[in-house]
Amino acid sequence: FGEDDFDEDQLVNYVPESFKSDEDRFQGVQKLMLTCAACGVNSEFPGLLHTAKEDVTTLRGGFHCVNPDCDRPHYWGENTPYECMARIMNSMAMLVRQQLQEYYKGVVKCDDPACGLETRQLSVNGGVCLNRGCNGRMNSTFKERTLQTQLKYLECLFDADHVCQQLASKEVYGTKAELEKYISKNDREISRELYRIAKENVDECAYNWISPSFWQSMFGAIRAKQ
User: Fold this and answer.
1) What gap in Å lies between CA 50 and CA 54, rounded to an integer?
2) Given Cys at both, which of 28, 51, 59, 83 links 78, Cβ 3.0 to 4.6 Å?
3) Does the reported pTM lie above 0.85?
4) Which of 157, 162, 142, 57 lies closest to 100, judged by CA?
5) Where are the alpha helices (DSSP H) in 130-181?
6) Residue 67: CB partners within 8 Å, gap ≥ 6?
7) Cβ pair 219, 76 in contact under 8 A
8) pLDDT tens-digit profile, the chain (226 residues)
9) Cα–Cα dist 2/136, whole Å
10) Is residue 76 a contact partner of residue 63, using CB atoms and an 8 Å limit?
């Protein structure tokens, strides 16, 4: 679990992230926001397929402005689907850069509520608080787990297979095969390229992998004892 703290109830009732709905799994992430070129309204990108606010039984494509008063909602006001894709790529890159900068600030905070010290300095004695007399521990304010969840959120937004599976699990909008028919050819091409970029970001994140040296050190130590 890394630096994350879990109480006993969380460990007993632990549910793997991949088994959670996207609403629960990504509720705390920074959402991908887009500004429509036609109406100028800044809105959250709802995903490849989403339900309409005024009618939860109706599905709509995500490459359309969600503002009901927009005069030109197709492709968020852009003239072509590829201009829309370029706009989303730019917004996604800016969001990832912002989250990486937040992570690499390396800010740590004391877990003692009476102290609450925030700093980028680290003690030579490990994670002890730098305030004299404080027995608290210093923890990262932006953990590796948080960054990984943010990158995974962007990947899931454009994963057509995942989006259809999530909607099909609600047993309201039809089967996965039926939902895939709602995605137009242009939308599928755009989502495929955006998904490729988002997946590259996830694959480059070290949190997503177990280093081979971990297994070498573990089993090497066992062999040495034998």
Assistant:
1) 12
2) 83
3) no
4) 142
5) 144-157, 160-168, 176-180
6) 36, 39, 41, 43, 73
7) no
8) 345 555 555 556 666 776 778 888 899 899 999 999 999 999 999 989 887 776 667 788 889 999 989 999 999 999 999 999 999 999 999 999 999 999 999 999 999 999 989 999 887 777 889 898 899 999 999 998 899 999 999 999 999 999 999 888 888 788 889 888 889 999 999 999 999 999 999 988 777 666 666 666 666 655 544 4
9) 18
10) yes
Say if residues 36 and 66 touch (Cβ distance below 8 Å): no
CA distance 161 to 178: 12
Task: For residues 114 and 116, give the distance between their C-alpha atoms in angstroms, rounded to a whole number.
Answer: 6
Residues 6+ apart with CB under 8 A from 213: none
DSSP-assigned beta bridge partners for residue 51:
59
Q: Is-contact 182 49, C-beta < 8 A?
A: yes
Q: How far apart are CA 216 and CA 213, in angstroms?
A: 5
**Residue 61 is which amino acid?**
G
Helix intervals (H) in the chain: 8-12, 22-25, 81-104, 144-157, 160-168, 176-180, 185-204, 212-225
